[in-house]
C-alpha cells in the first residue's frame, strides 16, 4: 500500500549482487529499433547516421542521410534521430524502426547558426544569428506555426528548452535572459556578459560568472527561485550542464581545468575538482548515474568524476591526439563519438573503453589512432621526475581500448590520498571488480618497482609520478591500472582538498561524521562547528575525523584548520540540520488519536501511515507507533527498538528492516497476514507492507511475499531475479527492475509495462498503475475512469518519491513541497501552508495524511 523502496537500498542490491545493468535486450540488425541504451551518432565523412547499441558496443544500423563530407548534427527526439545539415539547414528524420529517412525540410533560412533542440512534445529549431525560432512537427518536420523572434542575436550555446517546451536563451546584445511563453516573448534583465543557460529537472538555470551566481529560474515568472555562489571569477568562460533528476548544475571552467557542482536542494556548491590541465579545450560534459564525464578536445581524453564524493574516478585517453569528439548519454550509458572520423565507442563509468568502428575504412578519412600500450619506464627520467603529461594519469585501464575490456575492471586505491610530501608513506592497493586472484607488479614512476596486491612506498624527491600496476592472471591475460601521485617538497604548505559530511542533511539526534582529505599529514587538526548567528562553536575537535549528534535544528558552518610546522590551511563548508518533526492532519486525526506524540516532534528520519495507525523511525534506529491499537499495531517488539533502517505500515500490521538484513513484523496476524517466513529473516534489502500482505526484496534481486494474497498469487518468474524495488497494495504486488520493466501481479507485466530511463518507484492502486521515472515524472496506466489515472501537471516533473493510500497518492517534490490526488485525497481545505515547505517525507493514510518536516527556520 505504501512506497517502501528506499534508494539507498538499490545501492545495496547492486553491491551485493555484483551486477550492473547497462542496457536492454538486443535486436536483430536487420530490424533496427530504438531500445534502451542505444543512440544515433553522426558519421560526417560518409554522410551517415549510425545507430550504436551501448550494451553490446555494436553498430546496429548505418543510414545514409546526406552527401559525403557533410557537417551533420544528430539529435534524439524520442525514438527517432533528427539530422541537421549545418551548412544548408536541411532537416531530416530517421525512423528507428524502419530506418526510413524523411525528405529534407528547411524550416528556417539556410544558416550556419541553426540548432535543433529536442523537447517533450516537438523539437525546436533556432538560429543564433537571426535570433529566430520555430516549432516543427516531430514526424513530418513541417513548421507548426510562424517563426518567432526570440532575440536580435542569441548567444551561441545558450539556447535551451525547459520541461514544458519553452525556449530560453541569452540575448547576446544585452546579456538578458529571454524566453517564449504562451506565444509571447518574455525578458528578464540579467546583464550577463559571459553567462550560460542549462536545464535541470525541467527548469532553467543561469550560470553567471560575471556576477558570481548560479540561479534556478522560475519557469513561468522568470524570477529567481534559488541562488548559489560558487567559486567563479568574473572573466571565467564556462561550460554548463544540468542534471535531469536532481536540481543540480555542473560547471566546467576550462581556463582552470576545474569542475564545480552546485546542488540547489542542498543549498551549496562543491569545491572545484581538477579534471584537466589549465587552459584545456573542454567540451560539453554529460552526467550518468551520479557521475560527470568531461571531454578534453585538446588531448582526446575524458575524465570521470563521482559527483557523490567529488572525486575523480578515472581518466581515459580515447584518442592519441586532439579530437573534436562529443559525449552522449542514453539510459546512463556514455557514448563518445568523433563525427569527423569512423571512431566512436562506449565509456564505462569505472574507466573501461569499448571502441566502435562506425563504417568501413575510407582512405579519405584519417582515422585517429588509439592509445598504444605504455611501458612503465617510458616516461621516467633518471631524476625520478615524470615527463609532462597533459592528462592527470588517474585510475583507468590501459592497453588498446579498441580490443575491448576483457576480464575484471582494475583501479588503484591510494591511502591516505593521492598527494603527500617527500618521505610520507603511501599505501597502494590494486582493486579488481570482481575480485580475482592475480600476481601484481608495480612501477612507482621513480625507477623503483614492487609486487603484491598491496604495497607501501615513499618518494624521496618532489614531483608528479604515474604509478602503474599490472595484474597477470593464471590464464596469462592481464589487467592494468594507473594513478598519479603528487609529492610536495618537505616544506610545502598543507592544503585541504575536501571536507566530507555524512549525512549531508541530518536531523536532530542523528550522528554526523566529519572528515577531510589533506595534502599533508598535519601535525594538528582543529575543527569548529558553529550554528548560524551564534558566536560560540557548538562543537570543537582535534582529531582527523569525529562524529557529533546535534540537538538543535538550524544552519551550521564547519571549519577545519590544519597545521604542519609553521604553515596552516583552512576550509569551511555550510550544511543544515533539520528538526525531523512529524505533522498529521485530516478528518480521521482526532477520532483515531493520531496527533504526534512528543517523541515524534524531533529526531524522526522516516514515516509511514496505515489504515488507522502510524509508524516512525527515529535517528537512533528505534521505531515508535501511535494511533489505533485494536490489533496490537502499537506494540513495537523489542527487536525493533534499535538497529532499524527502514519501516513500512500496512493495513493493521507493520514491518521493520534491521541493519543485519532481518525483517520484524507486529500487529494483526489473524486475517491472512501470517508471520515472517524464514526466507525474509536474512539478507533482505527492502520491505513493503500492504493491506493484508507483505513483501521483501532479497539481496539477490528475488522477491518474497507472504500473507492473504500470496497463496493464490505466487511470485511470477520475472520477479524472482533482477528486481530493484517493490510495492504491495490491496492484494496487488508490484516489482520493478533495472531495465525499466515493471511487473504487477496477478495481472502480469502488461499492467506495468516498461519505462525508458529507469524506475524510482511504482505501485498499483484503484485499478491504476502509477510509475515514477528516474527523470522525476509520474505516469499512469490502467482505467482512465478512476481519479488516480489523471496525474496533475505538477507531478510530471521534479518528483522524488510517491506514497500510496488505498485510493489516493502523495508526491514529494524536489523543492521540498508536496501534492496529492485521488478519491481519498483529504486536502479539503489544502494542507496548512506551514506543512508544505521543508518537507522530507510524506505518507498517505485512510482519511489522514502526514509529513516529515525540516523546521529549520
Helical content stands at under 10%
> Over all CA atoms, what is the radius of gyration?
28 Å
Q: How many DSSP E strands?
A: 68
| Morphology | globular
What does this entry look like structurally?
The chain has 857 residues and is mainly β. The chain is 1% helix and 44% strand. The chain has one helix and 68 strands. The strands form 19 sheets. Strands 19, 20, 21, 22 and 23 form a five-stranded antiparallel β-sheet that branches.
Features:
single chain; about 850 residues
What is the secondary structure topology, with strand pairs?
Blueprint: H1 7-17, E1 38-43, E2 48-53, E3 58-64, E4 72-77, E5 80-85, E6 91-94, E7 114-117, E8 124-127, E9 132-135, E10 148-149, E11 160-161, E12 167-170, E13 177-181, E14 184-188, E15 196-200, E16 203-208, E17 213-217, E18 224-228, E19 239-242, E20 248-253, E21 258-263, E22 268-269, E23 273-274, E24 286-288, E25 291-296, E26 301-306, E27 311-317, E28 326-330, E29 333-337, E30 343-347, E31 353-357, E32 409-415, E33 419-421, E34 425-433, E35 439-443, E36 449-451, E37 454-458, E38 463-472, E39 478-488, E40 496-502, E41 511-518, E42 524-531, E43 539-541, E44 546-549, E45 554-564, E46 567-577, E47 581-585, E48 604-609, E49 613-618, E50 623-627, E51 644-649, E52 653-658, E53 663-667, E54 684-689, E55 693-698, E56 703-707, E57 723-728, E58 733-737, E59 741-745, E60 748-754, E61 759-765, E62 768-773, E63 778-782, E64 799-804, E65 808-813, E66 818-822, E67 839-844, E68 849-853
Amino acid at each position: 500500500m505504501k512506497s517502501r523502496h528506499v534508494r539507498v537500498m538499490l545501492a545495496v542490491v547492486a553491491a551485493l549482487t555484483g551486477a550492473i545493468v547497462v542496457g536492454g535486450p538486443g535486436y536483430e540488425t536487420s530490424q533496427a529499433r530504438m531500445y534502451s541504451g542505444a543512440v544515433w551518432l553522426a558519421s560526417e565523412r560518409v554522410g551517415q547516421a549510425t545507430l550504436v547499441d551501448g550494451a553490446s558496443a555494436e553498430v546496429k544500423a548505418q543510414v545514409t542521410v546526406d552527401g559525403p563530407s557533410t557537417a551533420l548534427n544528430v539529435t534524439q527526439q524520442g525514438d527517432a534521430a533528427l539530422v541537421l545539415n549545418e551548412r544548408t539547414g536541411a532537416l531530416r528524420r530517421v525512423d528507428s524502426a524502419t530506418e526510413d529517412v524523411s525528405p529534407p525540410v528547411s524550416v528556417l533560412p539556410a544558416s550556419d547558426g541553426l540548432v535543433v533542440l529536442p523537447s517533450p512534445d516537438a523539437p525546436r529549431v533556432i538560429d543564433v544569428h537571426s535570433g529566430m525560432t520555430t516549432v516543427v512537427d516531430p514526424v513530418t518536420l513541417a513548421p507548426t506555426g510562424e517563426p518567432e523572434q526570440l532575440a536580435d542575436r542569441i548567444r551561441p550555446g545558450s539556447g535551451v528548452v525547459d520541461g514544458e517546451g519553452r525556449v530560453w536563451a541569452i540575448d547576446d546584445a544585452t546579456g538578458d535572459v529571454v524566453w517564449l511563453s504562451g506565444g509571447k516573448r518574455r525578458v528578464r534583465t540579467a546583464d550577463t556578459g559571459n553567462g550560460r543557460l542549462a536545464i535541470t529537472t525541467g527548469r532553467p538555470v543561469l550560470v553567471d560568472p560575471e556576477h558570481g551566481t548560479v540561479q534556478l529560474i522560475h519557469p513561468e515568472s522568470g524570477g529567481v527561485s534559488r541562488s548559489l555562489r560558487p567559486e567563479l571569477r568574473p572573466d571565467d568562460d564556462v561550460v554548463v550542464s544540468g542534471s535531469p533528476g536532481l536540481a543540480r548544475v555542473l560547471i566546467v571552467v576550462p581556463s582552470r581545468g576545474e569542475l564545480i557542482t552546485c546542488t540547489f536542494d542542498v543549498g551549496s556548491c562543491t569545491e572545484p575538482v581538477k579534471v584537466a590541465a589549465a587552459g584545456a579545450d573542454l567540451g560539453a560534459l554529460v552526467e550518468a548515474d551520479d557521475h560527470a564525464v568531461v571531454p578534453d578536445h585538446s588531448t582526446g581524453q575524458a575524465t570521470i568524476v563521482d559527483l557523490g564524493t567529488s572525486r575523480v574516478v578515472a581518466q581515459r585517453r580515447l584518442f592519441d591526439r586532439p579530437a573534436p569528439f562529443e559525449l552522449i548519454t542514453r539510459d546512463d550509458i556514455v557514448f563518445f563519438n568523433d563525427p569527423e572520423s569512423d571512431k566512436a565507442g562506449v565509456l564505462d563509468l569505472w574507466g573501461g573503453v569499448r571502441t566502435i568502428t562506425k563504417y568501413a575504412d575510407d582512405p579519405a578519412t584519417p582515422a585517429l589512432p588509439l592509445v598504444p600500450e605504455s611501458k612503465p619506464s617510458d616516461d621516467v627520467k633518471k631524476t625520478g621526475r615524470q615527463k609532462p603529461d597533459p592528462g592527470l594519469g588517474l585510475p583507468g585501464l590501459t592497453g588498446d581500448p579498441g580490443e575491448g575490456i576483457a576480464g575484471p575492471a582494475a583501479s588503484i586505491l591510494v591511502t591516505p590520498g593521492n598527494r603527500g610530501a617527500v618521505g610520507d608513506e603511501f599505501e597502494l592497493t590494486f582493486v579488481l571488480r570482481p575480485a580475482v586472484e592475480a600476481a601484481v607488479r608495480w612501477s612507482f614512476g621513480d625507477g623503483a618497482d614492487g609486487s603484491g596486491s598491496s604495497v607501501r612506498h615513499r618518494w624521496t624527491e618532489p614531483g608528479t609520478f604515474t604509478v602503474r600496476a599490472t595484474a597477470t592472471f593464471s590464464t596469462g591475460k592481464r589487467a592494468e591500472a594507473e594513478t598519479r601521485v603528487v609529492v610536495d617538497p618537505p616544506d610545502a604548505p598543507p592544503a585541504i582538498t575536501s571536507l566530507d559530511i555524512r549525512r549531508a542533511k541530518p536531523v536532530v539526534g542523528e550522528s554526523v561524521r566529519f572528515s577531510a582529505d589533506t595534502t599533508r599529514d598535519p601535525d594538528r587538526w582543529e575543527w569548529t562547528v558553529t550554528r548560524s548567528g551564534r558566536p560560540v562553536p557548538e562543537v570543537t575537535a582535534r582529531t582527523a575525523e569525529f562524529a557529533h549528534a546535534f540537538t538543535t535544528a538550524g544552519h551550521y558552518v564547519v571549519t577545519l584548520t590544519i597545521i604542519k610546522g609553521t604553515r596552516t590551511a583552512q576550509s569551511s563548508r555550510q550544511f543544515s540540520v533539520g528538526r525531523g518533526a512529524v505533522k498529521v492532519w485530516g478528518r480521521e486525526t482526532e477520532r483515531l488519536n493520531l496527533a504526534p506524540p512528543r517523541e515524534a516532534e524531533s529526531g524522526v528520519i522516516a514515516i509511514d501511515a496505515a489504515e488507522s495507525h502510524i509508524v516512525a523511525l527515529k535517528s537512533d534506529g528505534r521505531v515508535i507507533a501511535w494511533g489505533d491499537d485494536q490489533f496490537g499495531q502499537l506494540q513495537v517488539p523489542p527487536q525493533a527498538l534499535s538497529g532499524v533502517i527502514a519501516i513500512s505500515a500496512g493495513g493493521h500490521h507493520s514491518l521493520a528492516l534491521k541493519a543485519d538484513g532481518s525483517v520484524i513484523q507486529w500487529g494483526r496476524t489473524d486475517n491472512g497476514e501470517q508471520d515472517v517466513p524464514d526466507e525474509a529473516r536474512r539478507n533482505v534489502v527492502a520491505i513493503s507492507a500492504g493491506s493484508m500482505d507483505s513483501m521483501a526484496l532479497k539481496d539477490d534481486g528475488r522477491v518474497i511475499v507472504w500473507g492473504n494474497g500470496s497463496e493464490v498469487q505466487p511470485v511470477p518468474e520475472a520477479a524472482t531475479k533482477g528486481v530493484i524495488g517493490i510495492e504491495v497494495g490491496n492484494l496487488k504486488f508490484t516489482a520493478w527492475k533495472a531495465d525499466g520493466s515493471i511487473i504487477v501481479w496477478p495481472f502480469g507485466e502488461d499492467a506495468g509495462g516498461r519505462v525508458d530511463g529507469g524506475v524510482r518507484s511504482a505501485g498499483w492502486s484503484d485499478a491504476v498503475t502509477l510509475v515514477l521515472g528516474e527523470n522525476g515524472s509520474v505516469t499512469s496506466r490502467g482505467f482512465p475512469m478512476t481519479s488516480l489515472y489523471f496525474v496533475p501537471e505538477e507531478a510530471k516533473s521534479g518528483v522524488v518519491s510517491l506514497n500510496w493510500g488505498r485510493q489516493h497518492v502523495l508526491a514529494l517534490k524536489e523543492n521540498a513541497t508536496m501534492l496529492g490526488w485521488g478519491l481519498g485525497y483529504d486536502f479539503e481545505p489544502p494542507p496548512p501552508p506551514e506543512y508544505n515547505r521543508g518537507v522530507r517525507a510524506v505518507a498517505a493514510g485512510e482519511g489522514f495524511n502526514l509529513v516529515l518536516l525540516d523546521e529549520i527556520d
